């Protein structure tokens, strides 16, 4: 497969493993990290990758330092035969000269200095466009890219979801870490399977009824106060609303295919509202205000149960998990239970299928 060649004097920091890095980044964005150490590492990686965005947040403007002067595009040679074009961290300030890439199926422009989406209308067969970590304020000029399936404009300065009406073949949309306050203008994206809106300013789940093919929805690190308007998403298997302002588990009755539910770091006090979610294999309700494990005896498919940083103090609560014969991972640290000197032993006796307690594997 043809690849991009360059003659620029500004070498990218890391050219190899770009696709692998993209997947790692997205996992970090979604906050599906494991133990505390892993979370710390994830935070460090995100911080490193988004220094430009953080500077803009602090300064309120697109100030470019001497080390971030945009590269002269004439120094970059684009291969007209390339199908996968990777221009990650090339200090590109303006999208221009890309009309030669008529065979391009993927275009990666991560970690550049781009302020405007433009001059891409000739890339008719483009399937994936990655604009992660730039200085883009508006989604625009994408109307011609009707075959686009993956679009990533995370870590920019977007305030609105717009300009996507013609992208009816879009399957994955990543808008992490922007300044978006409202979910809107997505009704034409009926083929969408993954929507990632973590780390924005969204206060309500709304305007997603048309997204009936949605498989994964990520809304972590927003300002959402209520689980609502999810009834139409019957194909949803992954729902992540970590680090919001939820106080109640509700509105999930139609999500009968849900397999992974992430509700950590909210203000939830009672485990409830999961009567119809029998297919759950992962339940994360860590870092809430829950005093009792209850109403989950029917979740016999559970493989992971994250309940750390709550207020559980009664050992008999673990009886709720005895029907889950496939349960392998349990997080209960930083609950009153952990003060028991027989903490690990009692969990092992109560739940013999468990292979990992908190961050430590069980030894036999």
Would you kindly provide a brief summary of this structure?
This protein has four helices and 14 strands. By secondary structure, the protein is mostly loops. It has a 14-stranded mixed beta sheet, covered by helices on one side.
Report on the architecture of this protein.
Strand 13 and strand 14 (360-361) form a beta hairpin. A 14-stranded mixed β-sheet has the order 1-2-3-4-5-6-7-8-9-10-11-12-13-14, with helices on one face. It has a domain at 225-363: Leucine-rich repeat, LRR (right-handed beta-alpha superhelix). Residues 1-66 have low confidence and may be disordered. The chain has helices spanning 18-29, 36-49, 51-59, 343-350, and strands at 84-86, 106-108, 128-130, 150-152, 172-174, 194-196, 216-218, 238-240, 260-262, 282-284, 304-306, 329-331, 356-357, 360-361. The protein is largely without helices or strands and 364 residues long. It contains 4 helices and 14 strands.
Which CATH C-level class of the domain at 225-363 is it? Alpha Beta
Rg from Cα: 23 Å
Average residue pLDDT: 86
Q: What class would the helix/strand composition place it in? A: little secondary structure
State the oligomer: single chain
How many strand units?
Answer: 14
Provide the CATH superfamily of the domain at 225-363.
Ribonuclease Inhibitor
Query: Fraction of residues in helices?
Result: 10-25%
| SSE order, one letter for each helix or strand | HHHEEEEEEEEEEEEHEE
Reported for the largest beta sheet, the result is: 14 strands, mixed
Q: How many alpha or pi helices? A: 4
Cα distance spanning the termini: 49 Å
Across the major sheet, the strand order is 1-2-3-4-5-6-7-8-9-10-11-12-13-14
* Annotated CATH topology of the domain at 225-363: Leucine-rich repeat, LRR (right-handed beta-alpha superhelix)
How does the overall form come out from the CA principal axes?
Answer: elongated
* Name given to the CATH architecture of the domain at 225-363: Alpha-Beta Horseshoe
Low-confidence runs: 1-66
């Amino acid at each position: 497969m043809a690849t991009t060649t360059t003659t620029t004097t500004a070498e990218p920091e890391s050219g190899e493993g770009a696709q692998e890095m993209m997947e790692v980044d997205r996992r970090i964005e979604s906050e599906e990290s494991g133990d505390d150490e892993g979370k710390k590492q994830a935070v460090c990686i995100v911080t490193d990758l988004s220094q430009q965005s953080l500077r803009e947040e602090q300064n309120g403007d697109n100030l470019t330092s001497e080390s971030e002067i945009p590269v002269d595009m004439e120094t970059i040679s684009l291969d007209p035969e390339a199908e996968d074009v990777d221009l990650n961290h090339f200090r590109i300030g303006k999208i221009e000269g890309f009309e030669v890439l008529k065979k391009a199926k993927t275009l990666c422009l991560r970690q550049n200095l781009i302020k405007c989406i433009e001059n891409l209308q000739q890339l008719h067969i483009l399937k994936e466009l990655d604009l992660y970590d730039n200085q883009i304020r508006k989604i625009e000029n994408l109307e011609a890219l009707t075959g686009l399936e993956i679009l990533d404009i995370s870590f920019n300065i977007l305030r609105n979801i717009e300009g996507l009406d013609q992208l009816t073949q879009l399957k994955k949309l990543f808008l992490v870490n922007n300044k978006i306050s409202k979910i809107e203008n997505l009704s034409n994206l009926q083929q969408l399977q993954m929507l990632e809106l973590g780390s924005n300013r969204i206060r309500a789940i709304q305007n997603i009824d048309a997204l009936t093919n949605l498989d994964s929805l990520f809304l972590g690190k927003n300002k959402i106060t209520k689980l609502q308007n999810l009834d139409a998403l019957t194909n949803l298997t992954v729902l992540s609303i970590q680090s919001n302002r939820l106080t109640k588990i509700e509105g999930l009755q139609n999500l009968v295919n849900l397999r992974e539910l992430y509700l950590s770091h909210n203000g939830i006090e009672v485990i409830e509202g999961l009567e119809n979610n029998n297919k759950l294999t992962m339940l994360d309700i860590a870092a809430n205000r829950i005093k009792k494990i209850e109403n989950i005896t029917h979740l016999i498919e559970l493989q992971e149960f994250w309940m750390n940083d709550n207020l559980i103090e009664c050992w008999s609560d673990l009886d709720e998990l005895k029907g889950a014969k496939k349960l392998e991972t349990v997080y209960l640290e930083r609950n009153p239970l952990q003060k028991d000197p027989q903490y690990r032993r009692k969990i092992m006796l109560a739940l013999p299928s468990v292979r990992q307690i908190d961050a430590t594997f069980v030894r036999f």
